[in-house]
Amino acid sequence: MKPKNQTRAGAIEIVEQGFHLLRTAPPSFFLSYYVGTVPFVLGLLFFWSDMSRGAFADERLAIETAGLTLLFIWMKTWQAFFARQLHGQMAGRTKPRLTGRKLLSAAVTQSILQPSGLFLIPVALVLLLPIGWVYSFYQNVTAFGGFEEGRSVFGKGLRNCLLWPRQNNYIVLLFKAFGFFVFLNLFAGIAAVPFLLATLLGIETVFVQSPWTFLNSTFFAAIGVVTYLCVDPWVKAVYVVRCFYGESRQTGEDLRMDLRSYAEPLQRALAIMTISTGLLFGSVLSGTGAEGARDNLPSDGGRVGAGAAPVKAAELNSSIEHILQQPEYSWRLPREKRVERKPKGVIASAIDSLMEVLKDWGKTVKSWLDQLVKWLNRRAPTNTTGGSGLALDWLFGIRGLVALLLVVVFGLFVFLLFRLWRQRDVSGEELSAEPVVALPNLADEQVGADQLPEDGWITLGRELLARGDLRLALRAFYLASLAHLAQRNLVTIARHKSNRDYERELGRRAHAIPEVTSTFTENVFIFDRSWYGRHEVNQAVLDRFQRNVEKINAA
After folding, report:
1. CA diameter of the chain
2. pTM of this prediction?
3. What is the rounded CA–CA span in Å between residue 70 and residue 343?
4. Which end of the chain has fewer CB atoms at under 10 Å, N or C?
5. What would the pLDDT profile of 304-338 be if each residue is shown by its tens digit?
């Protein structure tokens, strides 16, 4: 029997599912994340640089702190919406629409719960032991903050951070190791760029002339925030998966997700059956048409007898032409080739014109890029010994990095405004599609009680009872009683357990309600002697079994 605090997936599997969820996410999801995160990262770099080197840092401390606080709330709000999008993708729901009310609600929730993490997470990291629970709580607040209200977010975040502690601590340990190696790779890659420029292009920067320039706090802060931008989306996806399974213990959403996997094979089987039936029906019609054609032709052993009227060639050709025009023969005729060309319509002409305009724009952009390259070549130093070798140093300093990130943020923001403008008239309720659930085969010993809910087993048992299959109906009612007990957390469904295992487990958990244990024991005795033994299942046995099931449900 599995421990009560153990999930069906381990830490490695949860991390892999989070990576798969992130890999299959559309680009618009990442746009939501980076639109909120990149401004805070830029603000943090500016604040770090100004406070560490600025001459007027004391005068600007208050206003920059207030601005950084607003950017932090902005970041957490968009990260909560990003987590909501991932949760909807995993649950198979439609893409959530972005509204001002949802963003405002998420902003209020995140501004209340998230700021304390700036102090508690570093303290927990120093103490080591509570870091798993503290870090998980604030990630859960982000995972639930996009579609829940404040008090509900706090309760669910706290409940899920206490859930499966071993798995959670393994996940935190994996992210520590992964983030450390990403930091080292980024440090080595960015530090190698100036030396590559000096070797390949002859451009010497301050980092080449003095390698100790790398060892400053601003450079390490920049590497740290880039590492955060690379790793944090994966962290959010992993905790979305973990919270999804945690809440599924109450909602059963993971079972619905598993049942959707049976819908596609069932649809394929139905499509194959439909195509096969159509081909068979077409062949039958073809045979019937051929017999009708033979009936329309003159016959007398293949000869025109003495009593039969002679058939004219024109009438015979007309009869054959009439038969060939029937639907079962017309599709066999070769398709005539059409050589005439129609003039292009309005839409085709418009598309051709648009392609020409795009080609002209591409040529213009290419010419601009060529001019920029020529301008940079003119500005490049002619010698590597003089002072002009630092002409392009601004490209590799913190100001160049901030300017580049500002351009990227502005482009993402313009694209987001364009997407919102396109969706301004889109309205309507979200549609949900229920998957086609394949009924299990009760004659198979591998069928478990967790494949259908209690109502599904009872409905199936009644259908089998109406058809007169009492033995399979008895098993359906027995699985319904197991599903009911599992729903009440009195037993845990597992394929390796026997009926006696369920009986002993129920005796341990339901000692306060002995009538349930005694009734279930009687039903196990009836089921084993009828299903595994040779005792006949009649209506009296089935009625007694059903009364016991109802007694268990009412206890």
Report:
1. 125
2. 0.46
3. 59
4. N
5. 444 455 667 777 777 777 777 776 665 555 555 55
